[in-house]
Specification:
The chain is mainly alpha-helical and 279 residues long. Helix content is 53%, strand content 11%. The strands form three sheets. It has a three-stranded parallel β-sheet with strand order 3-4-5, sandwiched between helices. It has a three-stranded mixed β-sheet with strand order 6-7-8. Helix 7 packs across helix 10, helix 7 runs parallel beside helix 12 and helix 11 packs across helix 12. The two termini are 36 Å apart. The relative contact order is 0.10.
């Protein structure tokens, strides 16, 4: 994302929690606060709510460098209620806050074709349009601050449930002797087809579980969705069941693989392996 901002001609300063992850053409900073000094926009993309809070308000954080008129944009996937709290804190300094999580995974981030779902003031979002255009292909304004995060949680809820259904179907089909290479074209020709299946099926057929979206982050998002549901007094029985699968998969050491590796747990329980004829 930062590399695409540089390519688009923006002046970029970067900071990463992992040392050595520099971006060609961008100035590397020692702290988040240093990266934010003199900036018009501070754009964050880190792993969870605690990380966002540390970047903003921890030692060496952005907070000390904030001045009136700046914009903070957060593309992490975090708690909607925490987002509201963070926005109130920086608003006291005259700083606008936009939550702009995205979908598209690693491939879209590299290609500059992410899809953003944003919460915040419409006029502020208009100021961010050149940056959105450098990193993505579409921006959906979902409402006030925190609505971008709320939307991302319900999007990932669907992804988790859709993939679980697909993985269970592949596992049962394999156990029953169904030819998976014949099943997939049928799935794609029918109402069962989905973007999740289209994206993940080729990786599964190659037994490639390298992380496009790590299982540990999907599990984190499942926990966020369940927490938000609890705060809102909403029951999510399907997601609660899927959470158990992810919990066990993480316990078995798959947390840093792609979330599609949950399939291997279903295979283990069934005593089968989903594969194409070439395998």
């Amino acid at each position: 994302m930062a590399a695409n901002l540089v390519k688009a001609g923006h002046e970029v300063a970067v900071w990463n929690r992992t040392p050595g992850k520099d971006v060609e053409g961008a100035r590397t900073s020692a702290t988040p606060g240093e990266a934010a000094q003199g900036a018009e926009v501070v754009w964050m993309c880190v792993s969870d709510t605690k990380a966002v809070e540390a970047v903003l308000f921890g030692a060496g954080g952005v907070d000390a460098s904030l001045t009136a008129g700046m914009i903070i944009a957060d593309s992490s996937t975090i708690s909607p209620s925490a987002t509201q709290r963070f926005a109130v804190r920086v608003k006291a300094k005259g700083v606008d806050y936009v939550d702009a999580p995205m979908t598209g995974s690693k491939i879209a981030a590299e290609a500059g074709s992410l899809i953003f779902m944003a919460g915040g003031d419409e006029a502020v979002l208009a100021r961010l349009q050149p940056l959105f255009q450098a990193m993505g292909k579409q921006v959906f304004h979902m409402g006030e601050t925190s609505q971008g995060q709320a939307t991302k949680l319900v999007m990932n809820l669907q992804i988790a449930l859709i993939f679980e259904g697909f993985a269970e179907a592949l596992t049962l089909g394999t156990k029953l002797g169904v030819d998976i290479e014949k099943l997939l074209p049928l799935v794609q020709a029918s109402m069962v087809r989905s973007g999740v299946v289209d994206y993940k099926a080729p990786f599964i057929m190659k037994r490639d579980f390298s992380p496009n979206f790590p299982l540990r982050l999907m599990l984190k998002d499942i926990h966020l969705a369940l927490d938000a549901a609890k705060e809102s007094r909403v029951r999510l029985p399907g997601l609660e069941a899927v959470e158990e699968v992810y919990d066990v998969a993480a316990e078995e050491g798959h947390q840093d693989l792609d979330y599609a590796a949950t399939l291997t747990l279903l295979e283990k329980w069934a005593g089968v392996e989903v594969k194409g004829a070439s395998k």
